[in-house]
Amino acid sequence: MSERVLPASLRDNPRAEQWIGFEPDRRVRLATGKVELGQGILTALTQIAAEELDVAPGRFRVVSGDTDAAPEEGFTAGSQSIEASGGAIRLVAAEVRTRFLEAAALRLNCAPEALRIEDGAILQDGAATALDYWSLAPLVDLARPVTGTAVLRTPASFRYIGRALPRVDLPGKLFGGGFIHDIAPEGLLHGRSLHRPWPGAVLGPLDEAAIARAAGGAVEVLRIGDFAAVIAPTEALAERALAAAEARARWSGGTPRPVVASEPLALVGAPATDRLLEIPARRSDAAPAADRLEARYLRPFLAHASIGPSVALAHWDGKRLDVQTHSQGVGMLRVALAQALGLDPAAVSVHHRPGAGCYGHNGADDVALDAALIARARPGRPVRVQWSRAQEMSVVPFGSAMVVDLAAGLDTHGRPVDWTMEVWSGTHGQRPGHNGRTNLLAAEALPGAVPTPPAPDVPDVAGFGGLRNAVALYDLPAQRITHHLIERPRLRTSSMRGLGTHGNVFALEGFIDELALRAGEDPLAYRLSLLSDPRARRVLEAVAEMSGWRGRLAGGDGVGWGIAFSRYKNRAAYVGLVAEIAVDQAIALRHIWCAVDAGLVVNPDGAANQIEGGILQAASWTVKEEVRVNEAGVLTNAWEHYPILTFPEVPEVTVRFVGDPADPSLGLGEAALGPTAAAIGNALAYALGARVREMPLTRERIAAALLG
Amino acid sequence: MSETFAFTLNGRPAHVAGRGDAVLVHALRGDLGLNATRFGCGAEACGACMVLLDGTPVQSCTLRLDRVAGRSVVTVEGLGTAEAPHPLQAALLDEQAGQCGYCLSGIQIAAAALLARNPDPSRAEITAALAGNFCRCGAQNRMIAAVQRAARSLRGETS
Predict the structure, then answer these.
(1) Is A646 at the interface with chain B, CB within 8 A?
(2) Which of residues 603-642 of A touch B (CB under 8 A)?
(3) What is the pLDDT of residues A549-595, one digit of tens each?
(4) Which of A170, A613, A640 shows the shortest C-beta gap to B45?
């Protein structure tokens, strides 16, 4: 066991006391750098700690995402929290248990093997002793680094891992309160910010008296360069002041967005950084091509479109800045805020608080700087800033539009003998700290700000950005994949759930379906003929059984079934997925079945909730969503222009976990996004007898496909 | 001009001072200190701010105080509490029906109104009743199951 490689989270935060502490009233402090976004992570991490410590889950007090009180673990992103933080917590908790058993054995003058722990109490040969974690705590040094050598529990003896424990955070959110939007310290000032509608825009004069008159109350206007904010004692007044200020704001200069005929096709040919990724052949029987197939797939810019607007609180006491945020990375936000404000990071504290749904790099970080700028101008007063709905859907970072071209030469059996792919996309990684920049919206509007250079993409070791899931796992000839990283896409782009996986799997799995059709074979059978990974085969076979998949070829009768496979990031959970749809003029989603192999699943119900949610969100992206822009800004800055899936449009969803609990846990929160898009696209192709390769799969595009 | 508006809030008399064109969601979350009603869009599009007005679900982000005066408002705080949950709230927890939870207040209000008029709603009736409520996390199927579970509970059936 001694050669076990420590998880990065543990290497960065090696002391046991950074993770676990024993508190009065038989409570246990569990600290994590990962934050609750509604994905149930704090419940699952508690289960892991409870398992290895032998303490009931109800005794835990969880501290998360706090620069003063929790380990620094980077961003809560990429379906990595169970593997990264959970992996660390499991090793820490097991080692803490071992150290306490050794201390108890010394006190009781017995062998540690004679002892065990039950809900924190030490038992000797099954009988109670006077000792427990809390009484022994002064004797055990938790400052010592964790070595990662403790023996872990095996699945057969699990008591908490693998059980569907209810979410610890849900009751608070059900009965009211509990969100960052609800935090209202004494003396609170409400701020509303004005942001540039396009890069480099210059803000004309703002008449404070006129704005206060129009708003009907005591409103102040703060100007710092081309950033502006209104400040008011009540929320209602702040909203009226924002409306008055926006109506009077005159923006000029900068680089307004050009009008283009078609997005995302405008990406093709735009200035880009190109690279070639070559994947060695997985089959060696390549014959000369007897046939050839090419196709182009498109994904538009997509919005996070959270139901609640971004919010932050800040307080400046003249020396220290204290920030409350729903950011996914408090440590990086601290550094970025310090950089933007010219402060020492040690003078900034950042604390995570629950926000509305978070699906990636949304406005949370940007609004934190808005609040900090106002707080510094009003020392001693707590400031809360909330974005408007329009800001939430226009000045935030977006998920990038993508163009994906695929081409394959085919042998006489319809199997690929050469394989090329080209991906055009903006960056999928422009979070605070990426590329050494703050990447905070208001920072670029401050006096003396340097224009932001083009951002690189998410590194390959992090699972790629625009090329996430571009590499096919099928037994293919050599894959030649070209990535065109667009230097300046028309919108600010950054990380949105799954990054490139949605566009790439839609394309790849659509193309595989096209190859199956060309070969005259059932799409499931065709996939299995090119897939030797047993876990990949298992999820496809399982979902075929769940959905009653019948081999079939011809479609065109208005009802369609589509199948798709993906292994998220090519290293996380495996997903096989089937969609059943009906199509008249528009798509009606009927039922989606999903088989998942995520190895050991810590909380099956929480995991199912994540898969179900990912399916419905990706279904919404795929059939309904598209950000549209003109030279003045984002047109889709209200729900009426950016519709998302509604209750009557929601398909039934059936999820089953088919993995082996003896296999390590694999990240799954984003694993179903790509397969959902592809299976719906494939189902539509079978229903119509013609393929729509451009998302969203709207009524207009369906009509166009039928007209051929 | 600031005036005082009197109405019934969760069964008790309430007063709030403000302009007649001020909207209820701000009054609830501000002076009245009830945070369950949430601001989502300010344009009656998402359902996050729903309350019952004389028993009918309405969006409070555009509901003027001068339209509320003399009427009865019920918020999530009036449906139940953690100690004494409404059957719908108990069912939402049983089904673990939610992720971020931000939309849950409005969905509770719309679903409670449905259950008050329809003791045995079908899936189609439930989704129609919740058509004005967005859930971005994709927990809709669990919410539908929770409404059905609550209906069984309200009918006295064991689920």
Answers:
(1) yes
(2) 605-606, 609-610, 612-617, 620, 638-640
(3) 976 655 667 899 999 999 999 999 999 999 999 998 899 999 999 99
(4) A640
d(CA A323, CA A382): 10
The complex scores an ipTM of: 0.98
A169: its two tokens: 């955070």
**Hey, CA dihedral for A88, A89, A94, A96, is it positive or negative?**
positive
B43 closest CB neighbour out of A354, A389, A647: A389
This prediction has a pTM of 0.97
Q: Which residue has the tokens 């999530």?
A: B76
For chain B, list the domains and their CATH numbers: 2-79 (3.10.20.30), 87-154 (1.10.150.120)
| Cis? peptide before A696, omega within 30° of 0 | yes
The DSSP element (H or E) to which A512 belongs, if any, is helix A501-519
Nearest to B35 among A182, A644, A647 (CB): A182
CATH 3.30.365.10 in chain A is located at 8-163, 180-253+304-392, 502-708
| Beta-bridge mates of residue A83 | none
**Cβ pair A357:B43 closer than 8 A:** no
Residue A604: both structure tokens together: 């099956």
Work out whether strand A220-224 and strand A227-232 pair parallel, antiparallel, or are unpaired. antiparallel
Per CB-CB distance under 8 Å, the chain B contacts of A612 are 138-139, 141-142
Q: Which of A307, A332, A312 is closest to A322 using CA atoms?
A: A312
List, as ranges, residues 527-546 from A with C-beta within 8 Å of B. none
Half-sphere exposure for B64 (CA within 13 Å, toward CB): 6
- Tens of pLDDT, residue by residue over A136-167, are 999 999 999 999 999 999 999 999 999 999 99
Whole-angstrom distance, CA of residue A411 vs CA of residue A286: 8
CA-nearest residue of chain B to A591?
B141
Angle (nearest 5°) at CA B141 between B136 and B146: 115
CATH architecture of A8-163: 2-Layer Sandwich (3.30)
